[in-house]
Amino acid sequence: MNKIGKYEFIAEPFHCDFSGHLCLGHLGNHLLNAADFHATGRGFGMKHLLGIHRAWVLSRLAIEMNEMPQQLEHFNVETWIEGAMRYFTQRNFEIIGDNGKVYGYGRSVWAMIDTETRQPADIFAIDDGAINHFIVTEKPCPIEKGDRVKMGNQAELVRTIDVYYHDIDINGHVNSIKYIEHVIDLWVIPWYRVHQIKRFDIAYVAETHQGDQLHFYREQTGDLTYCIRLVKTDQNTLQDTEVCRCKIQFT
Amino acid sequence: MNKIGKYEFIAEPFHCDFSGHLCLGHLGNHLLNAADFHATGRGFGMKHLLGIHRAWVLSRLAIEMNEMPQQLEHFNVETWIEGAMRYFTQRNFEIIGDNGKVYGYGRSVWAMIDTETRQPADIFAIDDGAINHFIVTEKPCPIEKGDRVKMGNQAELVRTIDVYYHDIDINGHVNSIKYIEHVIDLWVIPWYRVHQIKRFDIAYVAETHQGDQLHFYREQTGDLTYCIRLVKTDQNTLQDTEVCRCKIQFT
Question: Could you read off the pLDDT of B64-83 as tens digits, one per residue?
Fold first, then answer.
């Protein structure tokens, strides 16, 4: 079995934005699908893990693009595991066209949890450390690793939304991609007419449920760089908790 | 070329709801993709039409389901043209599993417009009435045609939302599927724990742009049947205009 998985996708018309380019959230969804296809083919996919009370949890995702696929363009997502530690693995992505054109890259960090205790679980305990057979160190992923998103106290509350039915996935939480979409929606189309997203970083901290409220705090940290802290108000306790942090860089 | 097109899809994890079933909006998206694959293969797809200043505009869509595909299930969408008139065609859909299981059906009505004048255009003028070679009358679509959604004046304003970046497609309007998703979001997860959507009808009237506001007026018209009128407030004129009407039937 090849250590690197390659999966073909198409930029569907309804997944493209006003400019006819694939939306970053839908690309992120394709990356997560590719990750699960790759893991499933090698014996550590979600379905198998759930049977032994384990699950992958996405901890960080960074996507950096030269260019977005256009409507109806075919493209491939290559994915591989760069490294594994006891509680975390690093998985990388390359988004390339049939002609070899490189659209961009992704980096992600995944934790494994015990689905009963919700505590971190030992990745090497799965099939006697089988994941070590799939580590690829020779394929480059020439984008920076995601740093911790540092934010001060100057971040401004720019939007509050309610969490609805469509935000929630089978785990009962807001799905990882929906946060990205809500953050991207903080800017308007006239902005996107003259700016593209160069890089998007997200680090997940806590889970959000239907009925919670999500608050978006935004801080400009560079010429075209913004950091966003998402905070939820729990519907039962009315307590505020940080849910995730994002950094978005435009060109 | 077979008159009936058949396209395979998979219920992607992030397109499934809390219950692990494909969301109706994503199914609708697959139907629209199947429609364009079918039309493209037969010489009247969107890409070809845009070159001659024509476009298909979805006028009505009805989806009626026995059961929704579950996470990671493969399913097929069969689509065919039931009839064509000068300004409208009826296109049907059957959603079936590899094992022949019928998940449900869809019906749609499409108009053709001149993309320069935005006026209705003659469908039979395309390649000398070529569409007539693809009409299928012998394949049944055993769900009712969509009636006009009749609503009184008792409908209650239940939600107002702003139109964001992700609502807008390459035509610069709110995409057909997003309306469906926003309507479905009017109900909460505890409701969907005990009710499934049996049938969803939508009739499109006018276009919405980024910056407009969308108001949802809801009226209960049967035991488990609701009609929803969407009205936009145009950001420039501040005028209210009806955008679409939906009917949603639960079981």
Answer: 999 999 999 999 999 999 99
Nearest CB to B210 within list A72, A165, A189: A189
Instruction: Please check whether residue B164 is in contact with residue B211, taking contact to mean a CB–CB distance below 8 angstroms.
Output: no
Read off the pLDDT of residues A159-205 as tens digits, 9 standing for 90 and up.
999 999 999 998 889 999 999 999 999 999 999 999 999 999 999 99
DSSP structure class, residue A145:
P
Token digits for B144? 């009712």
Rounded Cα distance, A30 and A21, in Å: 15
pTM summary value? 0.92
pLDDT of residue B235 exceeding 90, the answer is no
The confidence score (pLDDT) of residue B129 equals 87
Rg (alpha carbons) of chain B, rounded to whole number: 18
- Rounded to an integer, the average pLDDT of B194-206 is 96
Q: For every residue of A76-112, which 3-state class applies, written as one string?
A: EEEEEEEEECCCEEEEEEEEECCCCCEEEEEEEEEEE
* Backbone φ, ψ for residue B195 (5° rounding): -130, 140
Of A165, A166, A185, the CB nearest to B165: A185
Q: Is the pLDDT of residue B151 over 90?
A: no
Chain A residues contacting B via beta carbons under 8 Å: 12-14, 16-20, 23, 25, 29, 32-33, 36, 46-47, 71-72, 164-166, 168-170, 172, 175-177, 181, 184-185, 187-189, 192, 210-211
Q: What ipTM goes with this model?
A: 0.90
Tokens encoding B116: 């320069």
For residue A24, give the nearest of A59, A56, A57, A69 by alpha carbon. A69
pLDDT tens readout for residues A198-211? 999 999 999 999 88
Given a contact cutoff of 8 angstroms between Cβ atoms, the answer to whether A84 and A132 are in contact is yes
For B209, which residue in chain A has the nearest alpha carbon? A189
Nearest to A14 among B19, B169, B184 (CB): B169
For testing contact with chain A, the best of B164, B179, B200 (most A CBs within 10 A): B164
Tokens 């975390």, residue located: A88
Is residue A94 a contact partner of residue A102, using CB atoms and an 8 Å limit? Answer: yes
pLDDT confidence tier of residue B47, bands split at 50, 70 and 90:
confident
- Concatenate the DSSP letters of all residues of A191-247 into one string: HHHH--EEEEEEEE-S---TT-EEEEEEEEEETTEEEEEEEEE-TTT--EEEEEEEE
**Residue-level pLDDT at A210:** 87
- Domains of chain A in sequence order: 5-134 (3.10.129.10), 156-250 (3.10.129.10)
Among left, alpha and beta (phi > 0; psi -120 to 50; other), residue A106 is beta
Please, which pLDDT band fits residue A126 given cuts at 50, 70 and 90? confident
**What residues are paired with B78 via a beta bridge?**
B6, B94
